[in-house]
Amino acid sequence: MSDTLQHEDEAVAERQALAETIAREGGRVALGYFRDRSRLTVDRKTSGQDVVSVADKEVETLLRKRIAARFPEDGLLGEEYGLQDGTSGFRWVMDPIDGTSPFVFGIPAWCVSIAVMRGETIVAGVIYAPTTDELYSARRGGGATLNGRPIRVAETATLQTGVLGLGANHRVPSRVVSGAIERLLDEGGMFIRNGSGALMLAYVAAGRLAAYWEPHMNAWDCYAGFVLVEEAGGWIVDPSGWSALMDGGAVFAGSPGTRADLLRIAGAEAT
Ligand code: IPD
Ligand code: CA
Ligand code: CA
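That's the Inositol-1-monophosphatase sequence above. Prediction below.
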């Protein structure tokens, strides 16, 4: 390996290690609020279903502070505090709490999600689920792990034999989702929605869910999950097809045997 390549690899590995450390640290802060929800103030964002809590803000502030202390020239994009450009070529894309709705209602399906990009490529992703103490981590070309053990997607799963993780929100017309659910059920498939798209993407990487689909997500919801799924042997529809990073787009990810069926059922064969 050339010196330059080795240096680039180390630069990514160092950021992956920091992402793991701060995902755990942020997760512990959020878990404190989750266990004592009387401390949790919740504000409405775009609708009664789209809310933010004091924990989301506190965790993102912590993540930003830790990253800036170690890599002050890296760019930052987080759900709560937006985009801050950097100069190093690296950008962190993070969701301090994915699954805020389950989080505020006391349902344990939520996580901290952190992706690292170099240029336009997602080079590392970490998802930490504090309630189960599960840390998912991947580096491009370096494989995917769950609490340090290698994970693989469910190699033989289909939509008929496995379960589809489904995401829904009010950013797209309801019939987009209802039509796909109808086709899925008619074809013998089944779905689950736990309220955390990032965590469901990690479940695809770990072989628990056969695939994941949501008609619209933002980069902070899914970038860490994308590299986890790819490094675990699965497929995604590349977000480079989105009109812009900040616009978000449709999310498809799965084990090999689900691709054709999922794209058809979701009405996206041309993708
Ligand atoms: C949401 C969750 C949800 C998905 C939404 C996301 P948030 O993120 O991932 O499962 O369906 O599209 O916005 O608001 O909990 O960070
Ligand atoms: Ca999210
Ligand atoms: Ca969030």
